[in-house]
Each structure stands twice: as C-alpha cells, then as structure tokens.
C-alpha cells in the first residue's frame, strides 16, 4: 500500500518506518528542510532503541523516503497519516493549529479518494473538524479516521510492531477495509483491532493515558502514607498487584510521572471536560499529586542537611524522564536541579543519553560527568531521579571511595533497604523506611 505520513517527529518517524517494514511504500512529509535532508541521508533524528536499524534498511530498499512537498508526499498515497504536534494551548487544551492547517492544505491538493488518519493525540471532535477543514477546498469523496497511538518511548518499535490492540475510529466501510488490511500484519498474534466511532477512539487515547497517570499518582499517595505509617510500599505494591483486577504494572511509586504524554494528556482531558461543563475531579487531584511528588525528595534532603544546602555538592544519576530515552520533557530531575541550585547547592549529573538535551536547557548551571562514578567525586549525597538499569547494581566500593558522605536519596527505589544499610549507607527512598548504615 502507498502511505504518506505528515510530520516526522517521534510518532511520525516510528509510524512511517514500521509501516515500511511490513512492505508498504511510505513517504514522510515535513516542513523542516534540514530534517528531511538528514533523514534522506540516513541520519536518524530521534533516539529510539531498535528504530535506526529498521529505518536504514527501509531507506536503502526504497520503501521509505522523505520530502518537504506535501503535494509530492500525498500524490499516490491511499492513506495519509497526520502525526503532527498538538501542544497545549494557553488554556491547557490541545492546540489543533498544525493538524487543521495541514488538513486544509490537503483539501487543496486532493483529486481522488483518500483516507486521512489522525495519529496525533487530539481532543474528541477533531475528526469532524479535520473533515470540515478538508471540505473547505475539496468536495470529492474522502474519509477521516481516528487511529491513536499507544507507543511508549524506549519500546516504541516493539509497541508498534506488536501492539496490545489497535484502536480504529471509523464510520465508512471503505476506510475500515483499508485500515484493516494495513494493520493485518501487526496483529497476526491475535491481538485485537478494535473498531469504533471516531469520538470514542479519540477519547480512548486520553482515557488510557489518564488512567495510567491516575494509577501512578494513587501509588505515590500510598507511598506517602507508607512513610507516615511505617509500612513498605514495595510490599503493598506486590500485595495489591497480584489481584488481576489491579495488575502488577504501573504501580511503581517514584518522584512523579513526566514525558511528553501523561502531563499534557491529563491536562487536556480536564480541559475538554470543563468545556462541556464537567469537573473531572479525580484528574485534577492526579495533576496536583504529581506536581508535589516531583519534589518529594527535597524535604528529606533538607532535613538531613539541617535545612542548609548552601555549598553542598550533589551527584545526580538520571536526567531523562524515564530510562531508555533522551527525552527530558517534564522530567522530575529538572525540578530537583532547580530547587537544589536555588538553595545554593551544586549538582554534577550523569545520564546515559540525556546529557546533550539537558546542556541545551541548563548549560553550565550544573556540571556533567562522563560516567556515573565520576559524578560522585566529593559528593555530599547522591540523588537518583531515573531508573536506568546500569544504576541498579553499581560497584558500591567505587562509589564509596569517591563520595564525601555515604548518603543516597533515591526517587526510584532502586536498592534493597536492608542490603544498602549493610553497606553503610544512609538511604532514603519513596514509601519505605529510611535506613542508616552502621559504618556511616
Ligand atoms: C506513555 C504511554 O504509556 C503510551 O501508551 C502513550 O502513547 C504515551 O505516553 P511514555 O510517555 O513513553 O508513554 O512513558 P511510560 O513508560 O508510559 O511512562 C510515563 C511516566 O510514568 C514516566 O515518567 C515513568 O517514570 C512514570 N511511571 C511509570 C511511574 O512513575 N511509575 C510506574 O509504575 C510506571
């Protein structure tokens, strides 16, 4: 099948590459000439494990190409995916300027039947608006479909190639058949393609992300209670997660959720609700809890250092909002850094992938280390903000010889409290007892 993908950001590039991988001919369109040049020359523009290999193979075999011309991109395509940004506007609602702008432009170019697919996360009713935008300039036959993505950064290729489910909001038989054929290779293992109306599909995406964010904020509140009541959140997590109705996943407390999706989508759903005069109370609380959780370690740090952080030197492990990505959007680490610096402390950070991005934002406000151990040189304490695997079983001896104090504030509960106390560390984490090792 011939496909166009408009927008070569994170979602567009993964979508285009994965559709090419199953034999389709994909043209990706972007207004950014330098990006199109880089991609055409085989230079991948985002960090996503496993993507580069697929990207290079499909580029080489001619199934994947890039252009700045919308007209060239969509000329032969049967299906056109819109993978454009929907940033939060001033009121928190998703800004549809890019999606609707491109839809209008497509309307000017259409000469025969095509299916336009909303891949971006868009508020309920957007499919109708896209339809209107196209119809401004075109009165022939076309369909608009809502097909939200559920890709997680870091495992997006796997999520795309082997989705738990594919949600397709569609009201025409013709478009339904085309979409079904396109996705057939991805659901061979029997996972469902769930067809529904466009509005339900649009809401499904927001509901899924908001539910997951709620799960996390709920556990973060349970963790707060654990700290106050002397319970261990890891035990509570295992205790409740074994119930199938609750499930084991997404129950890990920490220093809040971040990234490009959860914060934006929860806010957008609250905003959509208020536009139809509904006060989505649970989600307001979810946002509130998450804001507070980002700075959860700070009172602990202040207390430990007698409310005086001036001149203290902190090592920080982890900058990305989660492991296996270089994405620092809404990353809790950045909030921690802000606060620590405000109080006169200095920070030396290490992250396996995100340093380059942080340098662009923070420049020399903090120092950057070449590896996790260098970051610890003369540190008064280590703060952990992201659960990269390489932080999980570090060489504690190497740590101890570098650190000024054996003190760790862990926002991701990486270590066993008993074991770390035995190594002589003072260790504070989230929702578990503080332990202080004997050889402090
Ligand atoms: C999410 C959705 O999972 C995905 O389906 C959607 O398409 C985009 O948004 P992503 O933002 O890549 O994906 O990250 P995800 O792995 O879901 O984690 C989101 C945040 O929740 C991270 O900040 C993570 O640290 C946090 N998290 C996750 C927790 O704090 N605890 C958990 O148990 C799980």
From TrEMBL:
It catalyses: UDP-alpha-D-glucose + 2 NAD(+) + H2O = UDP-alpha-D-glucuronate + 2 NADH + 3 H(+). This is UDP-glucose 6-dehydrogenase. The keyword Amino-acid biosynthesis does not apply. InterPro entries: 6-PGluconate_DH-like_C_sf (IPR008927), NAD(P)-bd_dom_sf (IPR036291), UDP-Glc/GDP-Man (IPR017476), UDP-Glc/GDP-Man_DH_C (IPR014027), UDP-Glc/GDP-Man_DH_C_sf (IPR036220), UDP-Glc/GDP-Man_DH_dimer (IPR014026), UDP-Glc/GDP-Man_DH_N (IPR001732), UDPglc_DH_bac (IPR028357). Keywords: NAD, Oxidoreductase. Pathway: Nucleotide-sugar biosynthesis; UDP-alpha-D-glucuronate biosynthesis; UDP-alpha-D-glucuronate from UDP-alpha-D-glucose: step 1/1. Residues 315-417 form the UDP-glucose/GDP-mannose dehydrogenase C-terminal domain. Its EC number is 1.1.1.22. Belongs to the UDP-glucose/GDP-mannose dehydrogenase family.
């Amino acid at each position: 099948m011939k496909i166009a993908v408009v927008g070569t950001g994170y979602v567009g590039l993964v979508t285009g590459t994965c559709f090419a991988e199953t034999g389709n001919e994909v043209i990706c369109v972007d207004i950014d000439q330098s990006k199109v040049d880089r991609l055409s020359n085989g230079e991948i523009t985002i960090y996503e494990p496993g993507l580069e290999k697929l990207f290079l193979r499909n580029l080489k075999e001619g199934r994947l190409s890039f252009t700045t011309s919308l007209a060239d991109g969509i000329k032969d395509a049967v299906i056109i995916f819109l993978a454009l940004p929907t940033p939060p506007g001033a009121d928190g609602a998703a800004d549809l300027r890019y999606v609707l702008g491109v839809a209008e432009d497509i309307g000017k170019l259409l000469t025969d039947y095509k299916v336009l697919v909303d891949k971006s996360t868009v508020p309920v009713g957007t499919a109708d608006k896209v339809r209107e935008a196209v119809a401004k300039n075109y009165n022939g036959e076309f369909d608009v479909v809502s097909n939200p993505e559920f890709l997680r950064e870091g495992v997006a290729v796997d999520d795309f190639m082997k989705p738990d489910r594919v949600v397709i909001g569609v009201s025409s038989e013709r478009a339904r058949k085309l979409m079904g054929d396109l996705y057939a290779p991805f659901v061979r293992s029997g996972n469902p393609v769930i067809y529904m109306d466009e509005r339900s599909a649009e809401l499904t995406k927001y509901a899924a992300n908001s539910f997951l964010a709620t799960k996390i904020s709920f556990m973060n509140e349970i963790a707060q209670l654990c700290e106050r009541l002397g319970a261990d959140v890891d035990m509570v997590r295992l205790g409740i997660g074994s119930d199938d109705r609750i499930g084991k996943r997404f129950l890990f407390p920490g220093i809040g959720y971040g990234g490009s999706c959860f914060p934006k989508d929860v806010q957008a759903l609250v905003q959509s609700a208020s536009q139809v005069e509904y006060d989505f109370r649970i989600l307001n609380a979810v946002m509130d809890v998450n804001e507070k959780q980002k700075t959860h370690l700070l009172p602990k740090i202040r207390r430990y250092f007698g409310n005086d952080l001036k001149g203290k030197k902190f090592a920080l492990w982890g900058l990305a909002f989660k492991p296996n990505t270089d994405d620092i959007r809404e990353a809790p680490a950045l909030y921690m850094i802000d606060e620590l610096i405000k109080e006169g402390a200095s920070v030396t950070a290490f992250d396996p992938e995100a340093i380059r991005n942080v340098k662009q934002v923070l420049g020399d406000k903090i120092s950057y280390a070449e590896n996790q151990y260098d970051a610890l040189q003369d540190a008064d304490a280590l703060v952990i903000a992201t659960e990269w695997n390489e932080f999980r079983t570090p060489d504690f001896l190497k740590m101890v010889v570098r650190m000024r104090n054996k003190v760790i504030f862990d926002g991701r509960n990486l270590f066993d409290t008993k074991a770390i106390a035995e190594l002589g560390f003072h260790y504070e984490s989230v929702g578990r007892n503080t332990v202080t090792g004997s050889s402090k």
